[in-house]
Structures are given as C-alpha cells and as structure tokens.
Amino acid sequence: MNQPVTMTEDLPGEEPSARSLRQPFLFVVLHCDRPSLGGARSCLSGVDVITIGRGPTREVSRVDEVGSRTLALSLPSPSVSKAHARLVRKGAEWLLEDLGSKNGSCINGERVARAPIQDGDFIEVGSVVLRYRAALPVSPDEVLDLDSMHRAPTVPGYLSLEPAIAADLVALVRIARLPITTLLLGETGTGKEVLAKGIHALSGRRGPFVAVNCGALPSTLLESQLFGHVKGSFTGARRDEPGYIRSAEGGTLFLDEIGDLPLPAQAALLRVLQEREVVPVGGARPTCVDVRVVAATNLPLETLCAEGEFRTDLLARLSGYQHTLPPLRERIEDLGLLVGDILRRSNIPGAMEARWSVRVARRLLSHAWPLNIRELENVLTVSVALADGGMIELAHLPESITNAPAQLSPSGDLSSSSGELREQLVSLLQKHQGNVSSVARVTGKSRMQIHRWMQKFGIHPDDFRG
C-alpha cells in the first residue's frame, strides 16, 4: 500500500513542537443545483482511493481494506451518477477516472475520461464542483474532516473550511474572552464588522456592541460624537450627550476605519485607552469608562505612522492583538460555504431554492472579487432576483464578472508578457472554438498549463464554443 505523503514546515519564531503538518484535502466547493448546502472538506492523508457518487445526503465514510484505504464521498445531486468517478493515488499524485457517468467529469472545465490532477485543480462531477489541494498547513488539534452544514462557527458569524484560517480563529476565541484591545486588518468587505460582533458575543460582556465608522464622522462634530459633550458646550448642544464611547459602557466599542481618524481625535482616544476615562467636550471632569475596544482598518497603519498621519503610540495601544482577515480570492474554497450562508440569510423570495449552471460556477470561482464578501453578497442578491425562481445563468450576473477584454493578437505564439499572453490565449481559443487540446497542441504546451493560464486570467473555454 502507498504510504501517505506529508510535509512539515517550521513556522518563524516557533519551536519544533509548534510545527504545522501539511496535509492533502479535497473540498466540496459548490453544489450548483443546491447552493444553499454550503461546502465541506475531507483530509486525504492515508487515503488511496476516493469514490464519488450520488447519495441522499452529503456524507463521507472511510473504509480500510487489505492493501488500501478508501474514502467514499456521497453527494445529494441528481446530476451525479450513483457511481460517478473515482480518484486513485499514485505515489504523491492523484488520477481522476470517470466511471461512465451520465453527465461526465471535468477538470478545470474540460471533460475528461481519465487524467491526472494537480494542486488547485477544480473537479466537476455533474453539477458539483470540488477542488484538490495538495498540502495545506494543519495545526495538530485541527478537525481534519469538516462539513459546514454540521458545525457551528468557531466565532459567531464567521466560519471557514481553510485549516490555516480555522487555526487563527481558535486563537481569536481565546483572545475574545480576555480584556485585550484587538486590531482587525484586511481589505474592504472581508467581514471585519462581522468578526468584531463575534468577538463581542464570545467576550461575555453584558453591555452593548457599538459600531462607529471613523471615516464617516464629520470633522466638526467628531470629538463630541465620540467623547460626548455637556449642555451648552457649543452652539446646538441643548443637552448632555454621552457619545459613542460612553454608550458602549460595559460592552464593546468597534472603531471601523480607524486609519481615517484625525490626529487630534487620535490623541483623545489614546487617553481613553491609557486611562480608561473620557472627558466630554465642554466638560471639566473625566468620566471613568469600562469598554472593550476592537478597531479595524484596510489601511497600512505602519506606513501612516512613518508618514506622520497616525500616532505610533496609539497603534501600539490598539495592537494588543492583531488578526488579519484574508481576501476572498485567497480562500476560494470557502465560496460555497459563504454562498450558503448568504442565501440562508437572504430576504429575497426563492433564495433558498436558487440554482445555477456550471458555467456560472466557473465564473464565480475564477473571479478576483476585489470587493470581497460584500461583492459576493451583492452578486447573489441581484442574480437571484433577476432569475425570478429560475436557473441563474451568465446573463443574470453583473458585467463586472461576465465582461473581459477581448482584444486579439494575430500571432500564434504565446508571449511572455502577461498582457500579451492573455490576448493571444483569447485569440487562440477563439480560433479553435474553445478546444483546449488544440490550443495546447499548436503552442507545444500541456493541456494543464493552458488551463492554469485560463484560470489565472478568468477565461472560460465555454465562451468560445458554439
């Protein structure tokens, strides 16, 4: 029997006992005919054969036989045959074999009968999309098999199938229960406020969760809105107001877009964090406050400090613990999980019954998602509404996803320039009507290399067929 292939990697600054084991995984990313099912993952360490077929529910079972270990993946989809496909491990590599299924099996959008798979490849069995990852870091105490339908989020409102992200969330749970100021870093739309609410829920604090968008506060009223004011302290101050900070007494104050806070307000906020007291505008005496501060930004605060636009001492106070949220493009295996959560929370009629074509799934999985989860939520909401209970097709997606540059180059040779490479790849796919094998043959490249380029540039062979 083949022995499982694993690797270890030393993490900077950690002892050997803290090494992360790297394991192979198979992800169930999307059910096109039932997107609300979310996603799942299975660890392939020690597995020699994976059988994939239709079943009443999504389930994974493991069978140890003489000379081999089998993982049986059951998928609840009418597009999947009872015995659809299997993956067989040959040393450190895997080979996909279609078992004569009705709807076929594809690797990166191309139908195959028997072909090797590589790290990052998307596998389609009927209308279910899987993804193979060869070696993901896993902490020693991580649950290896995970189904989003059967496990509550580690942090309320925020779940991931990515082992590295899950490990970071476990650490965040420990921090959430302690009075430690926390700084959340990440691009716009990655879920920083959702995570802040989860931290508050785990903290056990009985006070309210108060969210403040520092970038939206008017400069003339910023300090009075944050720190409060006393009656008569300025024109229009007709009564005492506590301000956002004192309103969060006993609870959590979430300071979003903290990098946009002006310098004078930064100095006052620093005093709040150091002394745990607030002096309202027009007030003479400080008021003690008990608040847990969680701040967030998509800006490079260290750079702002170097440029004199953000106080270094305030950054030190805010960075009791830092947690970085990865962009959606770096956790694409979570797409189905996120889709399922969004559809379950949607108030659009028919959201839970939504379904889409595999071509739509390919577009969603190859999109760069510059606005992250927020963009995904908007795309799903609009497409479900436009489909009006029918199947979601490419026509229901926004132009930001469906449109791509179509400038063609007459050359048949692939250029080393990224821009020229994309243009000439489009030209060749158009000339050969989306036949990837033909493009590979005329360029002297492997079919898998062509697929990697198409995935990189968000190109789909279906767009050039028929």
Overview of the structural elements:
This protein is 29% helix and 23% strand. It has 466 residues and is α+β, with helices and mostly antiparallel strands. The strands form four sheets. Strands 1, 2, 3, 9, 10, 12, 13 and 14 form an eight-stranded antiparallel sheet that branches. Strands 5-6-4-7-8-11 form a six-stranded mixed sheet, with no helix packed on it. The radius of gyration is 26 Å and the shape is elongated. The two termini are 46 Å apart. 37% of the residues are buried.
Q: Which regions have little confidence, pLDDT < 50, spanning 5+ residues?
A: 1-19, 404-417
Mind telling me the C-alpha Rg?
26 Å
Task: Output the structural class.
Answer: alpha+beta
Q: What's the multimeric state?
A: single chain
Number of helices: 14
Overall mean pLDDT: 85
Summary?
The chain contains 14 helices and 21 strands. The protein is of the alpha+beta class and 466 residues long.
What is the fold's blueprint, element by element?
Blueprint: E1 7-9, E2 20-31, E3 40-43, E4 49-54, E5 59-65, E6 68-75, E7 85-90, E8 93-98, E9 105-107, E10 110-112, E11 114-117, E12 122-125, E13 128-138, E14 146-147, H1 163-176, E15 182-185, H2 192-203, E16 209-213, H3 222-227, H4 243-247, E17 252-256, H5 263-275, E18 277-278, E19 287-288, E20 292-297, H6 301-306, H7 312-318, E21 321-324, H8 335-345, H9 358-366, H10 372-387, H11 399-402, H12 418-431, H13 436-443, H14 447-457
Parallel strand pairs: 4-6, 15-20, 15-21, 16-17, 17-20
Antiparallel strand pairs: 1-2, 2-3, 2-13, 3-14, 4-7, 5-6, 7-8, 8-11, 9-10, 9-12, 12-13, 18-19
Helix pairs in contact: 1-2, 5-7, 8-10, 13-14
